[in-house]
Amino acid sequence: MQLGYPYGFDAQGRTAQASGDDHIRDLIEQVLFTAPGERVNRPTFGTGLAQLLFAPTSPELATATQFLVQGALQQWLGDLIKFTGVQVESVDSTVTVTVQYVVLATQQRMSAEFTRGGG
User: Fold this and answer.
1) Looking at residue 111, which CATH number applies to its domain?
2) Angle in degrees, CA 39, 8, 102, rounded to 5
3) What are the E-state strand segments in the chain?
4) For residue 26, which of 5, 44, 87, 118 is within the disulfide window of CB 3.0 to 4.6 Å?
5) What would the pLDDT profile of 39-93 be if each residue is shown by its tens digit?
6) How many CB atoms are closer than 10 A to CB 47?
7) CA distance 11 to 101
8) Angle between helices 59-77 and 20-33 (to 10 degrees)
């Protein structure tokens, strides 16, 4: 078991934990929604995806963001998972990222969707 994200407590008052699959999903979420420079000892960690919430949408921006997200996920989580697809959609002030991946330890195919709104 790994620490749950966001950090919290379970019903017994202990630090909440997450299963292996939930932990990997939590790690993906952390990479996606952490801005570069936000972590002092890891200044390149993250994607800056939250900036999309306030940017004008366009197909070119969505494509560029897809490459940015895929590169960051590969850099930070490439030893745990193999990415088979990343899709980024930005509608109004909402960003939705769908990540398809294979967990290297178990070879299990997974898919996770993350949504953030700016309003």
Assistant:
1) 3.10.450.40
2) 70
3) 2-3, 17-18, 81-91, 94-103, 108-117
4) 5
5) 889 999 998 787 766 666 667 777 888 888 899 999 999 999 999 999 888 777 6
6) 23
7) 31
8) 130
**C-alpha triplet 80, 62, 39: angle, nearest 5°:** 50
Helices (H), 1-119: 20-33, 59-77
Give the type of residue at 18. Answer: A
CA dihedral of residues 87, 49, 29, 3 (deg, nearest 10)? 160
Give CA 68 to chain center in angstroms.
12
CA separation for the pair 7, 51 (Å, rounded): 24
Q: Which amino acid is at 63?
A: T
Taking CA 86 as the corner, what is the angle to CA 83 and CA 91, rounded to the nearest 5 degrees?
Answer: 165
Tokens of 76: 């930070």
Q: pTM for the complete prediction?
A: 0.80
CA dihedral 25, 73, 63, 116 (to 10 degrees): 40
